[in-house]
Design brief:
The protein is mainly beta. It is 7% helix and 61% strand. The protein contains two helices and 21 strands. The chain has helices spanning 28-39, 47-67; strands at 7-12, 18-23, 74-76, 79-92, 105-119, 125-137, 145-160, 163-174, 190-203, 207-222, 230-244, 247-260, 276-288, 293-306, 318-332, 335-347, 353-365, 371-384, 390-404, 409-422, 429-441. It has an 18-stranded antiparallel β-barrel. A two-stranded antiparallel sheet has the order 1-2. α1 (28-39) crosses α2. The longest helix has 21 residues, at 47-67. The protein starts with 6 loop residues before the first strand and ends with a strand.
Length: 442
């Protein structure tokens, strides 16, 4: 439901004839940061908002890949493909994210990325994007596990009159516990996320409406003492009005039906988790503020209503205001950055609700001619209720260098630090993560 505007995309036929298609024009780089903050949690209180942001980001990536003539380098029948192989070496000095028993290890991460585009007709395309690999721990083999990167999907775009329809199945296996600030004391964190559904965008010139539905499944693969498996039915709607070129205001609404698998079989889990219904309603504003600054703001109200059988649960009904602000700014030829911040109402990995205030800054430094330099800083303050009430702060700077060695070989070096402070014992930690990666595009 994050419709922020519209843009026109021209698809060329062999004979040079052009047809008009429709897409979303959102503050995409801001959405990426917001998605990263929201996607780390399971069945969130703003699930429809998160799913809509993920849909917009997936559409952006598909368009960018299609626009690059050199992106796909292999033809197989009517389809075009791109393959990239990668090998990463990562050092982590606190695998279990705890103040005691700080295990450290060197992790090898072979990975293969594949992307496919099949033009079924002039304007209808089938897309596949998959990034998969395996994490191999040198000293703690009990943590060895596969991973599938977020952004992996199979999708079909087709057009019916003025309707753009996208049918998709998005999937990932998330295994980096340090990306979730509610995770502590767990070294084998791993979860399968799958979202299958459809989104419809209806362009009425001055008004762009979007409808979405997803069936979402969360399956705990390891770290089993965390959030139980869940299934959700997620509905979203938004309508944006074009006030003038590159300035859109609108409304958004969503609903989620949440069901935890086998929850009734465990009386203890029923104290901290509950099936139920979530709804949210709000408004957004997106505008190109200046030639170099784009901003997006959204605010609304959300409420989670537990099933009647869970009405006595201490972490049942909760409600409140959500808000987000995202700004992308090209300061000069040497620096562009994205700033996001806001408030989320969500669920913690180890049970109960969590009220989160967050801010993230991502910067790209155009200082070196052949080397890309980027930096980031993230902060979050959370108040969560579960097995025990907790207040925590979570922050971390990051730095990444990337250099193309040859036309097909790229090397990168990254460093990330996270610190978590808590008012509960044994739930504070600090972790240093250094990564060296080589990727080769076939």
């Amino acid at each position: 439901m994050q419709v922020a505007g519209r843009e026109t995309k021209v698809l060329r036929e062999d004979g040079g004839r052009a047809k008009r298609a429709f897409a979303l024009a959102a503050c995409y780089r801001g959405c990426i940061c917001f998605c990263a903050a929201a996607v780390a949690f399971g069945a969130g209180a703003q699930e429809s908002l998160r799913m809509s942001l993920a849909s917009a980001e997936a559409a952006r990536l598909r368009r960018e890949a299609a626009a690059r003539t050199d992106y796909y380098n292999l033809s197989l029948g009517p389809s075009t493909w791109s393959f990239t192989g990668g090998l990463g070496l990562q050092y982590n000095d606190n695998l279990r994210y705890t103040s005691s028993d700080q295990q450290q290890d060197l992790i090898t991460r072979p990975q293969l990325d594949a992307r496919m585009r099949w033009a079924v007709s002039d304007i209808n395309t089938l897309n596949l994007a998959v990034g998969a690999g395996y994490a191999i721990y040198a000293a703690h083999s009990e943590y060895n596990r596969p991973f599938v990167t977020p952004g992996s999907e199979l999708s079909l775009d087709f057009y019916v009159g003025s309707l753009w329809v996208n049918v998709h199945d998005r999937f990932s296996i998330v295994e980096n516990g340090y990306l979730d600030p509610t995770v502590t004391g767990i070294g084998d964190y791993e979860r399968l996320d799958n979202a299958a559904g459809v989104s419809v965008t209806w362009d009425l010139n001055k008004i762009v409406a979007k409808f979405g539905y997803d069936h979402v499944s969360y399956l705990q693969l390891s770290g089993a003492r965390g959030q139980p498996d869940a299934e959700l039915e997620v509905f979203s709607f938004s309508a944006g009005y074009v006030l003038k070129p590159q300035m859109v205001a609108g409304v958004e609404a969503g609903g989620t039906l949440l069901r935890y698998v086998s929850l009734a079989d465990d009386p203890l889990l029923r104290l901290y988790y509950s099936d139920g219904t979530q709804w949210s309603v709000g408004a957004f504003y997106d505008a190109q503020l200046t030639q170099y600054i784009r901003g997006r703001a959204s605010v609304g109200y959300t409420q989670f209503l537990p099933d009647s059988s869970f009405a006595s649960a201490p972490n049942g009904d909760f409600q409140g205001v959500y808000a987000q602000l995202a700004i992308s700014h090209r300061l000069n030829q040497y620096l562009d950055y994205t700033l996001t911040g806001g408030r989320l109402l969500n669920f913690a990995y180890l049970g109960g609700r969590v009220d989160q205030y967050f801010a993230t800054v991502n910067a790209n430094w155009h200082i070196f001619r052949k080397t890309a330099l980027s930096s980031s800083f993230t902060w979050q303050h959370g108040i969560q209720a579960g097995f025990a009430k907790e207040q925590y702060d979570w922050l971390g700077p990051g730095l990444n260098l990337e250099r193309r060695i040859t036309r097909k070989l790229t090397m990168s070096l990254g460093y990330q630090y996270y610190w978590r402070g808590s008012d509960l014992p044994e739930r504070s930690y600090a972790v240093n993560i250094a990564t060296l990666r080589a990727s080769y595009k076939f």
